[in-house]
């Protein structure tokens, strides 16, 4: 009964506050404005950079920035060609490499990405890195953090917008924002849903292909990731993503679509 009620209230809210993910066309709930989400993201990102160490490896740093920018430009061109540039409004792209052994990478709303040096041995080269960054940039383009927070608003607060909640219960709204960006448990651990992860995989392949990276390299990349995690608890980057077998099958099924965007 309770579940049905939630489904019903989400359905009602969807009719009034809804956006569409580029390319996949999936409709998603949006109860938080992009401006709010980005402001939060930019504050959290600056805070993160203050508290963490940038890599001093100039070559690796340049590769991360170059890869991020290539993917970013390809996405910008695609959005412009399809009259969707307004969806990138307010984006303040930034790509940084952090000195940290964690096998991890993440992106925040508005195009702020972080790659950890610990993932570079698995990436092996720029194309491998493009698999990682394509996936993370896809989360930002598909506005998954906004959606995540909107679902929470729908489930816990009857579908109020973030602004309405902040007016009525500022403390609660603040708490919700903090949780969204995993404050307290370390940034970048925003938990996306399984559907969002699959969507980021699909869009990630397309985005890397648009930027001129061969999307087929994603298959061996995820195999290396899987081998790295073998037996033990999977690295953080894997734990929030689909299981290896499911992911491989999904990637294969997305490949023909991605190859259409691949310009060598
Ligand atoms: Zn992901």
How much of the residues is beta strand, in percent? 5-15%
Q: What is the string of helix and strand elements? A: HEEHHEEEHHHHHHHHH
- Number of helical runs? 12
Segments where pLDDT lies below 50 for 5+ residues?
183-189
Q: What does this molecule look like?
A:
- The protein has 264 residues and is mainly alpha-helical.
- It has one domain (2-259).
- The protein is 61% helix and 8% strand.
- It has helices at 2-16, 34-51, 58-81, 120-123, 126-141, 144-157, 162-168, 170-180, 194-210, 218-229, 236-239, 244-261, and strands at residues 18-20, 27-29, 94-98, 105-108, 112-116.
- A 3-stranded mixed sheet has the order 3-5-4. Strands 1-2 form a two-stranded antiparallel ribbon.
- β4 (105-108) and β5 form a beta hairpin.
- The longest helix is centred in the first third of the chain and has 24 residues, at 58-81.
- It starts with a helix and ends with a helix.
- Residues 183-189 have low confidence and may be disordered.
- It binds zinc ion (ZN).
- Zinc ion (ZN) binds at residues 135, 139, 192, 197, 200, 241.
- Zinc ion is lined by residues 135, 139, 192, 197, 200, 241.
- Keywords: Hydrolase, Metal-binding, Metalloprotease, Protease, Signal, Zinc.
- Residues 1-19 form the signal peptide.
- Residues 68-253 form the Peptidase M48 domain.
- Its cofactor is Zn(2+).
Please give the structural blueprint:
Layout: H1 2-16, E1 18-20, E2 27-29, H2 34-51, H3 58-81, E3 94-98, E4 105-108, E5 112-116, H4 120-123, H5 126-141, H6 144-157, H7 162-168, H8 170-180, H9 194-210, H10 218-229, H11 236-239, H12 244-261
Parallel strand pairs: 3-5
Antiparallel strand pairs: 1-2, 4-5
Helix pairs in contact: 3-5, 5-9, 7-8, 9-12, 10-12
The structure holds zinc ion (ZN).
